[in-house]
Amino acid sequence: MCVVAYAFSPIDLIPDFIPILGYLDDVILIPLGVALALKMIPNAVVQECTVKAEDRIKNGKPKNWLVGSLIILVWIVIILWISIAAYRHWFN
């Protein structure tokens, strides 16, 4: 949880606006945190999840058409909103 919280947190050890160093802490700390978290997971759990993942791959990727449709709808609404705003700005 701490790695995910740090990854999404707007607060960093080194602020992102500092060139190169700002992103360097994210590039180093997040992979190290993920590696540490993976080492803490028991082998039995990793093997069980690996088997489940392989079964899902064999059966084909799960599809969620409802969520896919909602994402496409959101993009259409955004494009229409920008188009209408641009039209009103340039032609009014």
From TrEMBL:
Residues 3-32 form the DUF1232 domain. It is found in: Endomembrane system. Keywords: Membrane, Transmembrane, Transmembrane helix. It is a multi-pass membrane protein. Its main location: membrane. The chain crosses the membrane at residues 20-38, 65-87. GO terms for cellular component: endomembrane system. It comes from the Bacteria. This is DUF1232 domain-containing protein. It comes from Paenibacillus contaminans.
